[in-house]
Fold each of these.
Amino acid sequence: MDKKIALVTGGSSGLGFAMAEELKKQGFFVVVIARNKGENFNFDDFLSCDLSDSASRRNLIQTIQEKYPAIDILINNAGIGSYAANYELELSDLKRLMEINYFAPVELNSKLLDNVAQAKGTIVNISSVAGLMPVACMGAYCSSKAALFMHSESLRMEVGAKNVHILTVCPGRINTGFSSRAIRVRECPDTPSNKNESAALLAKKIYRAICRKKDILIFPWWYSAVVWFTRKFKRLYRYGNKRVWKLD
Ligand SMILES: NC(=O)c1ccc[n+]([C@@H]2O[C@H](COP(=O)([O-])OP(=O)(O)OC[C@H]3O[C@@H](n4cnc5c(N)ncnc54)[C@H](OP(=O)(O)O)[C@@H]3O)[C@@H](O)[C@H]2O)c1
């Protein structure tokens, strides 16, 4: 194949769709992986997979290994949120969330590492700023994204000889239907952070970070200061969380 190959999980909507569009614009052969094709599908291949299901993941990996021996960019983007106190979430929902947000990317990265190495390519793991700081009533989501962050950062130390570039992305709130698709025991309160950033702008920044072989991208940049604030002023931050979520 003359074009470079990019695989995007969760490319049917939101950030994944914006990434797929950006990569298509940049001349890549774009493969979207999701349960649904989504609206306005205009990419080169679609692989249907429920990433929460290990049998479905096994089939997906086999198909990819047969069709795409060399992968230039693998983007682990598919993910779901949760709005529930830790003690309110059903174990089955927690397990499903961890399957999609953590186990699926870990399995894809492990099983497809040689395919990415074949192209001296890039693995992008979409974590979240919620993986860098605790948020009340989003504990399951924060845990899954913190786990993915650590997976991504430790993987980078392990793949040196294979010539694989690892990029960890930690977005703040972005303008997608993510909140409406989250596992919800509570409604997400309206906070100043609901002034969302655009997925298309983040997709451009991610592509630039891939080209520049950056390690970590926090978007928007000022979330680095927010993370610092939450660590420095723990009690104030805890108080704010309790107020926002109306906790005792
Ligand atoms: N939006 C934000 O504010 C924000 C902030 C920080 C980080 N992030 C992260 O950014 C990533 C993209 O989120 P988004 O905002 O673009 O959300 P989104 O619009 O809800 O997109 C989620 C994507 O994941 C796919 N997906 C969900 N469950 C799946 C499953 N079981 N199997 C296969 N695919 C599945 C969905 O496709 P199907 O439904 O077709 O399967 C969809 O394409 C996520 O990892 C999210 O955690 C988002």
Amino acid sequence: MSVSSPCEICAMRSVRHTCTRCGQLVCDRHFDEETGLCVECASDVGRPGDRSPDPGRNPDGVDTYRF
Ligand SMILES: [Zn+2]
Ligand SMILES: [Zn+2]
């Protein structure tokens, strides 16, 4: 019954979420749990500062250093 489809955005991971707006199947990485939308809809709705579709980039620094 349940066929494991790839993410419609990256087409690499197994689908775990369905966008409540456009209905496309996306993986965990391309789903915004806060809004229940895929990253495309989330950026379309308006989330300033988070519109990077490239999963390879991680703006958040791992290192924690203080002044
Ligand atoms: Zn994906
Ligand atoms: Zn969507």
Amino acid sequence: MRIAGTVQESIVDGPGLRFTVFAQGCPHRCEGCHNPQTHDAHGGTERPVSDIISEMLKNPLTDGLTLSGGEPFAQAEDCAEIAEAAKKAGLNVWIYTGYTFEELVVAGDGSAERNLLGLADVLVDGRFILAERTLEYPWRGSRNQRLIDVRRSLSEGRAAELPYPAEPINNLGGK
Ligand code: SF4
């Protein structure tokens, strides 16, 4: 998998202590993006998915996995392998994406994107919009971005947003 990097003990990419993988490559090119070095799909470094999984499982204190970027859905199969290993280890899974929930659902059953979406507990969705930039919405950069309860959304067939403060947000699908 092509990655921009990993962070072992992140406290800013979701609740609790998280292992974060920054996927390399992003087609969205949002104006004002904080991680422009992740845009080039040929940049970053190539790492075996098995290495990334071993690194994730090294720290027993980790609460969850966050897949960020770049665009994780541009490498949906590799990201799904990591997310599956995280779920097996009892970690909750958050995914940051420039796509909206609705755009990902359109990819359809059986697609790599739909498979990855189904492994997420929370999706932080939508492009970063500079005019909507805010520091007031936890875990998001702009007001249009949503915290989506993926399981509920898929069963109800519409994007179900998590309220904030969200009471059992720490308990979503993991420790
Ligand atoms: S989706 Fe995220 S990484 Fe990609 S350009 Fe937009 S803000 Fe940057």
Amino acid sequence: MRKIIELKNVSKAFDGQTVLDNVSLDIYDNEFLTLLGPSGCGKTTTLRIIAGFESPDSGSLSFLGEDILSLPPHRRNVNTVFQRYALFPHLNVFENIAFPLREKKVPQDEIRGKVDEMLRLVALTGFEKRSVTSLSGGQQQRVAIARALISRPKVLLLDEPLAALDLKLRKDMQQELKNIQKATGITFVFVTHDQEEALSMSDTVVVMSEGRIQQIGTPIDIYNEPRNAFVADFIGESNILSGIMLQDRLVRFSGRDFPCVDEGFARNEPVDVVIRPEDVVIVPKGQLRGTVTSVTFLGVHYEIIVDIGGFKWMIQTTGFADVGDEIGIYVDPENIHIMKKSEYSGLFGDYSSFSNEFDELSDAESEAEP
Ligand SMILES: Nc1ncnc2c1ncn2[C@@H]1O[C@H](COP(=O)(O)OP(=O)(O)O)[C@@H](O)[C@H]1O
Ligand SMILES: [Mg+2]
């Protein structure tokens, strides 16, 4: 695969506040790459630096091997789709999409052909005469994408383009965007704070927190092999326990020794242990025992919170347990994942403050609790 964009040691501060801290990232030809992280972690700033709307305080940015930091946005071979689509309300669908070509004084029949092609690509054939203000949010976003793609940039930057759409439409658009990316072969750099969206759409996911890249990998890598407690917590649900790696393939946590499959840690090295809720099996006896404190039916499975020695585990199971039941749990060695200690150790992975409210809401509430 050919490397298109390379950010190297890029840092940026606003008003003395570091927003990007030594970010290095390679972006490849034909790749669907997603920057994923909570609000404020520096995703938009990264995109704006690539697009040329912002310049880094230090570090380099190259495009096909050439330094492009001194190039203005319109001289870079990239285009941006924003969350607010910024269509021209007085122009119809055709003219909105044709706009970049009109600016470049492209001849009329060439414009016609290219707009038709874009309309087909975003499934809006027949809509060319419609006023953009009469379109649904999803249709407007497709017009914005067609307009951004019509001049065939090498790279399309998309900053939370689906955030304003309702859930059902967002799911449809995710699939459609993915199809458009495959059909055109244009590299997409997509920004979202939604981990499910990132996992379902991307070839490569870049997890960011506080201006730093935490992990780069395929969705499966990121999910199965999170590099630290931040990534494990942010991507899906995780029980994260503090443990000690006694020796290769043997870890101690919750007062017990567990066989696992990880190797290469120092003897007795303190580590973080991640166990996904769907990997915990309820059994009569079990490696550990605890008391069920909450049960929620979620359609495909139950989400059960179990208090094991004061640490609250989340378990997802199709079996049923009742609040107050004492149960045993078993975890397969392959499903015990060991991580190095990090600055995020101890911050995540205990479901004591868990509620079925929105995650962010319960986070905010638990911080306020004594
Ligand atoms: N032009 C700016 N001036 C001052 N602060 C900014 C500016 N742009 C972004 N920031 C700050 O930088 C941080 C990262 O912002 P941003 O890159 O937009 O994050 P994200 O897109 O991940 O939500 C935030 O704290 C934001 O308030
Ligand atoms: Mg943003």
